UniProtKB/TrEMBL annotation, chains A, B:
Gene3D superfamilies: Tetracycline Repressor, domain 2
Residues of the DNA-binding region: 30-49
Domain spans labelled HTH tetR-type: 7-67
Organism ancestry: Bacteria, Bacillati, Bacillota, Bacilli, Bacillales
Species the sequence originates in: Thermaerobacillus caldiproteolyticus
Key words, A-Z: DNA-binding
Name of the molecule in the record: AcrR family transcriptional regulator
Top-rank taxon, per record: Bacteria
Length: 196, 196
């Protein structure tokens, strides 16, 4: 995939800004430092962003979109054969931890900004709960599960494990994804005979 | 059970202090208000506590002891018949939510004081992980479970559900305890045939 020069500059600015925000904090970072570190001009910056606030918001929105996409995994469950649901969900957990681990600076920023993280958390919880409720009607999710409690729990565990084990590099994305799947899936999904 | 007058006064001071700290914050609460609201004298206060800091610390320590006791549930697992483990653990989760829900002010204080909650959280996680590792050797906990990840996850879920559903009174202690058990136990415990 080739990127245009403009896309490349924009991506570079976002990446440098992310590093500086995480290292020095949002307040102490100047646009002049972002452009200097990116090897670009102030004029180039203003081609893509209105302000420092704007680049920060775009950065968080891109990140949020990835998280929302990955946590929408439940939507696909109805299209899968029952025996594939578990491995599909496990892989999506691994991908989720991969995105969070690949962008440690952004993950730190996102988890630290309570207002932003509350907004995105709420949306993700709602999406997981709605998908689970739908899957419950199809018999994929156990009848006795309160889908809102389960959704809150999954998000809480993901956040805690990111902070505790992923950002510290004590565990890999695979280990965390597999453990989360191992802990939750037998309790939440109906055990369907393989081959069903 | 009869309490001595001294025990009764101390308990009353702790209870009033808890209410005032939660309502007005620790900083804004004066010892004079605590004693006035408890219908006691300053002299009585200083019989039991050295300072405002001291009553606060004693309050948190009592609370911590209860939480530590209840989260030590795994220790008993080896003494139970396999089919009783699940209901035993479920009941302890319900009791844990009951203690947290019965002391909403203290729970709010404890969850808000990051330093204290980190200290107690660490201890509880360690205790659960150690009990689980021991139970793993007895075949009660599944071989493939990373007991530290599981312990962190259980604590994270408990905290989140307390904040989100218990303190808001949207769910009962029983609902939360049963859901936590439902979600986690099939993934963590080995399925032993009933009657084993």
């Amino acid at each position: 995939m080739s990127r245009t020069k403009g896309e490349e500059s924009k991506r570079k600015l976002l990446q440098v800004a992310e590093e500086l925000f995480a290292k020095k904090g949002y307040q102490s970072t100047k646009i002049s430092e972002i452009v200097a570190n990116a090897g670009l001009t102030q004029a180039a910056f203003y081609l893509y962003f209105k302000s420092k606030e704007d680049i920060f918001q775009q950065m968080l929105e891109d990140f949020d979109q990835q998280l929302i996409y990955l946590s929408d995994v439940g939507k696909k469950a109805v299209e899968l054969s029952p025996k594939d649901v578990k491995s599909y969900v496990t892989n999506m957990f691994i991908q989720l931890f991969t995105v969070l681990g690949k962008n440690p600076n952004l993950t730190k920023i996102a988890l630290q900004h309570a207002t932003d993280s509350d907004r995105i958390r709420k949306k993700i919880v709602e999406q997981i709960a709605n998908n689970m409720s739908n899957n419950q009607r199809f018999g994929i999710v156990k009848e006795e599960i309160d889908t809102w409690i389960a959704a809150e729990s999954i998000v809480a565990v993901t956040e805690r494990l990111v902070n505790r084990y992923l950002l510290t590099r004590e565990k890999t994305e695979e280990e965390l994804g597999e453990q989360v799947a191992q802990m939750f899936l037998s309790g939440i999904l109906n055990h369907l005979k393989s081959g069903d």
